[in-house]
Write a structure and sequence with these properties.
Layout: H1 7-19, H2 22-28, H3 33-47, E1 52-54, E2 60-62, H4 64-89, E3 94-100, H5 102-106, H6 108-120, E4 124-130, H7 133-141, E5 147-152, E6 161-173, H8 176-180, E7 184-190, H9 195-206, E8 210-217, H10 220-228, E9 234-237, E10 245-247, E11 258-265, H11 272-284
Parallel strand pairs: 3-4, 3-5, 7-8
Antiparallel strand pairs: 1-2, 5-11, 6-9, 6-10, 6-11
Length: 308
């Protein structure tokens, strides 16, 4: 049995056809020319046919096979839109199974998104599992959850969708000034692997600052409690700063760049609530990615990290 065409590749092909070129298609899809070109190559590999060619004047045009693929792609997308409209006419019910880490579940950004979804679709149930990124991806592969939310300091995996990017800030308790007077930075961290932890350590090493880990917690509540008790400093996204802790702004601590937040979903979702939730996230943050790297102001930070 032949493998079905990838919807993402078909949408990329239509973007090239409708815009007239790879560069324009890259702008429209929020991607790069290299990514657009690679997706065309993958679609040609799937179809076993050459779909685009250039005429004598160098203009891009479809081959006969390309015209067939174009019509098929438009029919598929039209049916997909029709199915979505039909689903939107029905009350959305069912359970959406989501895996995420503790900082996702506690942070204001995601809880706000989940609140908007629940208000819009009150019959849908959100089944949230608080696990680390590695466990979340395994649950997704095993079909035990529908969506795996993750953060990364390196590459977004192909097929994932970016939710947002945030700059990391150094934070401490209200009495952090006394900690800044010490020669050795006292670090509060999450359990490894954790990109906040690795970024903090890497930034201090590059700046030549001495440091030691004094407190490790598996939860954001534990990290916040340790900060409030003035046990040390840590690195967090700005959205996780609360009234009990302070951003150590204007200090001599080195910048640590940004982290990206995104999600992967299980293919072939069948539950109406899960399908609707995926559409909801796409509409809120329509940035499907193909290995795009998180922007980092520090060019020395090259090594991608695992998803968390």
């Amino acid at each position: 049995m032949s493998r079905p065409f990838d919807i993402d590749l078909l949408m990329n092909f239509l973007a090239v056809v409708d815009s007239g070129g790879f560069t324009a298609a890259a702008r429209e899809t929020n991607s790069t020319q290299a990514t657009v070109s690679a997706k065309i190559a993958r679609l040609e590999q799937q179809s076993g046919q050459r779909l685009l060619e250039r005429n004598r004047r160098g203009l891009l045009r479809r081959t006969r096979e390309g015209e067939v693929i174009e019509q098929m792609a438009r029919d598929i997308l039209r049916l997909q839109q029709m199915a979505r409209r039909r689903l939107e006419e029905l009350p959305v019910s069912g359970t959406v199974r989501i895996g995420m880490s503790d900082d996702f579940a506690t942070g204001r950004r995601l809880t706000s998104l989940l609140g908007k979804f629940s208000a819009r679709f009150p019959l849908a149930c959100l089944d949230v599992r608080i696990v680390n990124g590695e466990t979340s991806l395994k649950l997704l592969d095993d079909g035990k959850i529908d969506f795996a939310l993750f953060k990364t300091e390196g590459m977004f995996p192909t097929g994932s969708t970016e939710l947002w990017r945030e700059r990391l800030v150094w934070v401490g308790g209200t009495g952090f000034a006394s900690l800044m007077e010490e020669e050795e930075i006292r670090l509060i961290t999450f359990d490894p692997p954790c990109c906040y932890r690795s970024r903090a350590i890497d930034a201090l090493k590059r700046a030549g600052r001495r440091w030691r880990i004094v407190y490790v917690s598996p939860s954001l509540a534990g990290v916040h409690a340790a900060l409030a008790a003035n046990l040390g400093l840590t690195l967090l996204p700005a959205s996780l700063v609360t009234s009990e802790i302070r951003s150590v702004a204007g200090s001599e601590l080195p910048p640590a760049g940004m982290v990206g937040f995104g999600f992967l979903n299980r293919p072939n979702l069948s539950c109406p609530a899960a399908i609707t939730f995926g559409d909801f996230l796409q509409k809120m943050h329509p940035h499907p990615l193909s290995g795009n790297r998180v922007f980092d102001s520090d060019p020395s930070h090259h090594a991608p990290s695992p998803l968390e």
